[in-house]
Amino acid sequence: MTAPSPCIICVAITGSVPTKAANPAVPISISEQVESTHAAFEAGASICHAHVRNPDETPSSDPEKFALLQEGLEKHCPGMIIQFSTGGRSGAGKARGGMLPLRPDMASLTVGSNNFPTRVYENPPDLVDWLAGEMQAYDVMPEIEAFDLSHIHQAVRMHRDGRLGGKLYIQFVMGVKNAMPVDEDTFHYYIKTVKRLAPEAIWCAAGIGAGQITVNEWCIANGGHTRTGLEDNVRLDRDTLAPSNAALVARTAELCERYGRPVATWQEARAILDRPLR
Asked: Is pLDDT at 211 greater than 90 in this prediction?
C-alpha cells in the first residue's frame, strides 16, 4: 500500500479585490503581507500567491513593489515558493508581466478569456504567448489558472508545442460569478480531462467565497493540491470573518489530517513541482 501523497497548500494572501472594509485582516502594505505570509507559512502553506497594492488599496503591477515583497518573503519565509500574479485586475497589457524579470519561482497564467462579475477578463492570444515566453526566458514556472474547460485544453496544447516548459501545473478556479461555479461533477470532469490529455500534469483547485472550503475538501479527498487565503474568501463561515490567512491555512491543514494527507513541506512542494532553490 502506497503512502498518501503530500498536499501542497497555496495561500493567496491579498489579491486585487478584498479590502480592509471587508475584513481588517486583509494585508495591504508590503510589511503586512510579509507578516501575514510568515504566519501562513508556519501554519503549513508552501506557496505564496502574491499581488501588490497601492497605499489606497487599489491594485498595482509595479515591479518595485513586487521586488520589495519578494525580498521580504525570501528573508522571513525561507524556502517558501513565491508565485506572482500576472492577472488582469492588476494591470493591462505587458505591464501584467513586468515583474517576471525578478525571477520568482512561479507566476500565474490564464490562457483564455472569460466573464468576471462585472466585466470580461481578457487574455488575448498574443499577450498569453508573450507572458508564457517571458516565463520561459526567466525560468518562472507557470501555474495555469483555468476558469473554463477550454483553458485546460489550451494549456495542454501550449505545453505540447513548447510554449509552456517544465512540468504542467493546472489550477481549476471555481466560484467566480459568471464563470465556472463550484460544481462537483464539473470538478471531477476537469480531473478526468487533465488525466486524459496530460497524464503527467499536476493539478490543484481554488474555490471562491463560500465555495473555498468545499473545493479544498474535494482537492484533498481526490489526491490534488489546493489553495486558500483571503484573496478568495474573507470568512470562516457566514457569520465569522477569518482572523488571518494563517487561520484559513490551518483549516485546510485540518482537512488534510482528516483525509490522511500529509501537508507538504516547502522541500516536498519544491520536489513535486521541480522548483529547486536558486
From this structure: yes
For residue 39, count other CB atoms closer than 10 A to its CB: 17
Cα–Cα distance measured from residue 120 to residue 266, given in angstroms and rounded to the nearest whole number: 35
Mean pLDDT over residues 60-71, rounded?
97
Question: What's the pLDDT at 89?
Answer: 78
The contacts of residue 185 (CB under 8 Å, 6+ apart) are none
pLDDT score recorded for residue 1: 64
Closest CA to 253 of 217, 208, 202, 278: 217
The residues, any chain, with a CB within 8 Å of residue 92's CB and separated by 6 or more, are none
Distance CA(82)–CA(247), nearest Å, equals 20
Distance of CA 122 to the CA centre of its chain: 18
Domains of the chain: 9-273 (3.20.20.70)
What per-residue confidence (pLDDT) applies to 91? 74
pTM over 0.85: yes
Q: Which residue has the higher pLDDT, 1 or 8?
A: 8
In order, the DSSP letters of 77-111 are STTPEEEE---TTS--GGGGGTTGGG--SEEEE--
Neighbouring CB atoms inside 10 A of 125's CB total 11
Percentages helix, strand, coil for the chain, rounded to the nearest 5? 40, 20, 40
At 140, the amino acid letter reads V
- The residues with which 27 forms a beta bridge, in sequence order, are none
